[in-house]
Design goal:
Shape: globular
CATH architecture of one domain: 3-Layer(aba) Sandwich
Distance between the termini: 29 Å
CATH class of one domain: Alpha Beta
Oligomer: single chain
Structural class: alpha/beta
Amino acid sequence: MEQGDVGMLEFKDVSFRYAQGVKSTVENLSFSMEEKSFVSIIGSSGCGKSTIFRLINGLEKKEKGEILVDGKRIEEIKNYSAYMPQKDLLYPWRTVEKNLFLPMEINNTSKEEMKEKTEKILKEVGLFEYAKRYPKELSGGMKQRAAFARTLLTGCDLLLLDEPFSALDSLTKIEMQQWLLAEWEKYEKTILFVTHDVEEAIFLSKKILVVTQTPITKFEEYIVPMEYSRKREDMKTKEIIELKEYLISNLRQKVRV
């Protein structure tokens, strides 16, 4: 999809500045992404990547422009996106099962349905035997799987994942990336993923949006030349290595924090 085409998510000339900000963080930004696609935003820390998410999910209010999901203004719709931040934010006093109940409790889902849906998804993410455990009893990767399962249980088709693996060790991070791709292919959700890790963005994404300036007025877009399903070995091709080196070089030259 070319920039400006109507898609699952669309920004149309969106501008935003924080109350204490001298200049805008986002200025006249337009972009779109297709339904069921996996798109990553990359850029250095503090460049405004997470602000894009806060605008999409309504935690921040834009100054001007329109944000559309499925062609509808976000101010006019509910439950259109689900947000998964860097930290798992599981409540330590709730079991894994009851943490997953949360989005359904908000939607007044019956106890029977909550139980049924939670059991099903815990089996699918490999955590069924940990349903009655507390977060402190889980590894970092298991906590992130539980948090992702809870995100899925919102029922939203648009998932916003904000550096969800940044706190994990390198081996667990690699395992979780492979796991996330499998879950994305299974559930056919639309995922917008924020990361500062170029290799992670390449491995996961169909398309990469690069922040090269602040305020963010546009993204530089790159299609990843790699088919799904993917394996780590696919990252060793000449084309992918060249893309990785180009993106790293590009970010070093252009991004201003």
